[in-house]
Every structure is written in C-alpha cells, then in structure tokens.
Amino acid sequence: MVTVRIPTPLRTLTAGEEQVQAEGSTVRAVLETLEKNHPGIRDRLLDEKGVRRFVNIYVGDEDIRFLDGLDTALKSGDEISIVPAIAGGN
C-alpha cells in the first residue's frame, strides 16, 4: 500500500481527500487503482504519450521522469506526490 498525495485541483475526484491509499507495485499500477477508485483521475494525469506535460509525479523526492517513468517500482510505505506544474513569468 502506498500513499498518494492529491493536489487541490484533483480533490473533487477524491471527495476532498488530500491523501489516498492505493495498491500497486509500479506507478502505473497505482494510477490504475486510483482510476478504479476515483474515475476520471487518469485522464487528468496521463495522455497517449504518458504523464501529461504539465503534471509531475514524484516517488518520495524523485521525479519519475528521472527514474523509470510509469514503470518506477514501488514498495509498501512509499509516498507518491502528484504536482501540477506551475506556469508563470512574463
């Protein structure tokens, strides 16, 4: 079981919960579990190429883009953070 930290914009899909528990041995498997429990969340996070450009997913402090992407292995007790990228500047 891993903990998934849900950003504010997606909490409408998790009944307001800021953290949810999910099963899965990889990030991809956890996202599938999230989709079963909270329909619609996958489409907000993934597109046909993988993780959407403006979404960052971390396992602990590591961005999965620098690990094994959606195939990053997880162990019980890991924490996944979903972080929408903040655009800004002039």
Q: Please, could you describe this protein's structure?
A:
The structure is a single chain. The chain is an alpha+beta fold and 90 residues long. It has a single domain (2-84), classed as Ubiquitin-like (UB roll) (Roll). The protein has 2 helices and 7 strands. The protein has helices at 27-37, 41-45; strands at residues 2-5, 19-22, 46-47, 50-51, 55-59, 62-63, 79-84. The strands form 2 sheets. The chain has a 5-stranded mixed beta sheet, with helices on one face. Strand 3 (46-47) and strand 4 (50-51) form a beta hairpin. The chain is globular, with a radius of gyration of 12 Å. The protein starts with a strand and ends in a 6-residue tail after the last strand.
> What distance lies between the first and last C-alpha atoms, to the nearest angstrom?
42 Å
What strand order characterises the main sheet? Answer: 2-1-7-5-6
Secondary-structure-derived class: alpha+beta
**Integer tally of domains:** 1
Q: According to CATH, what is the class?
A: Alpha Beta
CATH architecture assignment: Roll
Number of helices: 2
**What are the low-pLDDT stretches, counting only 5+ consecutive residues below 50?**
none
Q: Using DSSP, what is the number of strands?
A: 7
**Rough shape?**
globular
According to CATH, the fold-level topology is: Ubiquitin-like (UB roll)
> Could you give me the name of the CATH homologous superfamily?
Beta-grasp domain
User: How would you characterize the largest beta sheet?
Assistant: 5 strands, mixed
The radius of gyration computed from the alpha-carbon positions, rounded to a whole number of angstroms, is 12 Å
Mean pLDDT: 95
Strand content: 25-35%
| Quaternary status | single chain
The SSE string, one letter per element, is EEHHEEEEE
Helix content bin? 10-25%
